[in-house]
Specification:
two-stranded antiparallel ribbon; single chain; 4% strand; 51% helix; 13 helices; 274 residues
């Protein structure tokens, strides 16, 4: 009896190994029979499938079925950022999306890819994923969009946020700006202003969330940097099912949040390769 009590006590005190689930497994489970992803109770979309494909690759899983869905439904890609994300997802899955590359080339106008700083950033990442050079004017626009404090904004001249600053770092490095360049270092320093509760928030002074933390971690990874505390915060949001909560105790759009978080958890940056 004494041995049984001791064994039960040791079992109760042992650290749980089931707290953090399989993120890749959760994402794989979001795909339907056609390989397309949907939020619980929702309809499948090509954009969400692109994010899931990226998350699967970051998690070390095959994104073959998701890539098949993206290719079948590529006519549904409307915006420049949807197109760019699909390219990043397909290349990460080992495909060569030549038709989408042709469409991307048509998005380059007046030194910008698409209409916004975000579409320009993702366009640069998509070009590099395809192995194509970044036009000098597009690179110049990327750097011109950067605010003096090192951040990147949603629209030129606006306040920067953590997500676009992180993707701006990745895009600049992909475009050939050295990580040691003062503009990259200023951007990296600016991310400290978004630190919150162990993770990172979208805006200064806000609560931390999984997606913003994941974006910052991938931006830091692009610059050869890490934030172990933020890595721990993000891992702490992973549930037993593999789902990643948006914030502690709050689950919203779980497939999207989990897919974006997977890149940060893996400490990888865009563009991903198979």
């Amino acid at each position: 009896m004494r041995r049984l009590v001791l064994a039960l006590l040791l079992l109760a005190l042992a650290p749980s190994t089931a707290a953090a689930g399989d993120v890749g497994g959760y994402l794989a489970g979001s795909l339907d029979s056609q390989g397309c992803a949907a939020e619980p109770g929702g309809s499948a979309s090509v954009n969400l499938t692109s994010w899931v494909a990226v998350g699967l690759v970051a998690s070390g899983r095959s994104a073959t079925s998701a890539a098949d869905c993206i290719e079948r439904r590529s006519s549904e890609l409307r915006s420049a950022t949807d197109l760019e994300l699909a390219i990043l997802a397909l290349v990460a899955a080992g495909r060569e999306p030549r038709d989408l590359a042709t469409r991307l080339a048509r998005e380059i106008r007046n030194g910008r890819i698409g209409p916004t700083p975000a579409s320009n950033q993702f366009g640069i990442l998509a070009l590099r994923a395809l192995g194509q050079p970044v036009p000098a004017a597009v690179k110049a626009t990327l750097l011109h969009d950067q605010n003096r404090d090192g951040t990147w904004p949603v629209m030129p001249g606006g306040d920067g946020d953590s997500n676009l600053t992180a993707s701006g770092i990745a895009a600049a490095i992909a475009a050939g700006v050295p990580a040691a360049d003062s503009r990259i270092q200023r951007a990296v320093r600016s991310l400290a202003g978004f630190r919150s509760g162990g993770g990172y928030a979208l805006a200064r002074g806000a609560r931390p969330d999984a997606q913003s933390t994941a974006w910052v971690l991938q931006g830091l990874a692009a610059a050869g940097r890490r934030d172990p505390a933020a890595e721990a915060y993000l891992r702490g949001l992973v549930q037993g099912s593999g789902l990643v909560q948006y914030q502690r105790g709050l689950t919203i759009t779980p497939v999207w949040v989990t897919a974006q978080s997977a890149v940060g958890i893996a400490r990888r940056s865009f563009p991903l390769k198979p």
